[in-house]
Amino acid sequence: MGLGAARKTALVTGAAGFLGSHLVDRLLDEGYEVVGIDNLMTGDLGNLERAGRDPHFHFQMGDVRQSIHVYAELVFNFACPASPVHYQSDPHATLTTSVLGALRLVEMARGRRCTIVHASTSEVYGDPTVHPQPESYWGNVNPIGERSCYDEGKRCAETLLNDARRAWGVDVRIARIFNTYGPRMAFDDGRVVSNFIVQALREKPLTLFGDGKQTRSFCFVKDLIEGIVALARPEPIEGPVNLGNPEEFTIRELAEEVLRLLGSDLEIIHAPLPADDPRQRKPDITRARELLGFSPRIGLRDGLRATVVDFQARLAERSPKGR
Ligand code: NAD
Ligand code: UDP
């Protein structure tokens, strides 16, 4: 699993975000010199507290839509708002970050010894008609809906990166990441895991959108980062690789699990299902298992427990009563 002992440079875009910051910590542990770029659209410098104490970490405030002047042997492209609430708040920024961010990295990497590991998403499958979703499925995506800035931006970035590999031999790796959760998710991020945990800790009713029968498969961040690091192995990997935990839950089951964990009997209230909300989602991880030995180990209950502990600590820091 190791990335090698020599101190090479890794660039992480979106370094101050949820996933980017965990990746930065992991790369520092692996012995990399790490440069992090972020414009703080949704990120938080607090996520980089540990990295900030490491002399091998260097932060640059910057926007991936501009030229990137960092040279790194390994690039992890994680810059992009990821929660529907955030990415729909500025659709133009979301789409241009995906597409121009990928373009700038190709410009940087072209003609150099450089591997780009790109954070794509299960959203490229849209509201899937094939279940579970293998990488060979082309998806069912609305090109002009409220989610399109994200879904189509990510699809276009995949196209751009694959063309760069075919035309110029740029070494690109594409991770199609399925719903991932864990410590450091933003309180106001609007994704279901953070919403339910914050609501439960604040003793507010849990907001279930639609009938709650829609499904997602939730991967704990530590497992996901293992997959990302494995994907950055020295030998090239062509084509996208699904990374996620195939254990599938309805959103109602998730709400009940959060309440069970906290010993709470709070009310679950219903709100309308957002437009184009996928009915089901579950990764087929055969390819990741075979190529990378990827095998998520942390089940929903343990992962949620660790996430709740982190949220409790951060909420307590914000207010002495932890509310
Ligand atoms: P996040 O919002 O916590 O992190 C995204 C980071 O990118 C933030 O720090 C933000 O400030 C930064 N950013 C946004 N636009 C930028 C720009 N133009 N220039 C520089 N920085 C910019 O989200 P996350 O959950 O950590 O997601 C990270 C990546 O993983 C995203 O590309 C996302 O699409 C992908 N992903 C995440 C999940 C998940 O479940 N968490 C699932 C699929 C894909
Ligand atoms: N959801 C919900 N209550 C919330 C937030 C989200 O019921 O407070 C639902 C949402 O409609 C979707 C699922 O939970 O069906 C996952 O939503 P999230 O935004 O976390 O991720 P995505 O839809 O991008 O997979």
TrEMBL record:
Listed transmembrane segments: none
Q: Name one Pfam family in it.
A: Epimerase
Instruction: Tell me the keywords, alphabetical order.
Output: Decarboxylase, Lyase, NAD
User: Which coenzymes or cofactors are required?
Assistant: NAD(+)
Asked whether the UniProt record includes NAD among its keywords, one would answer: yes
Which residues belong to any copy of the NAD-dependent epimerase/dehydratase domain? 10-243
Q: What is this protein called?
A: SDR family oxidoreductase
Organism per entry:
Polyangium mundeleinium
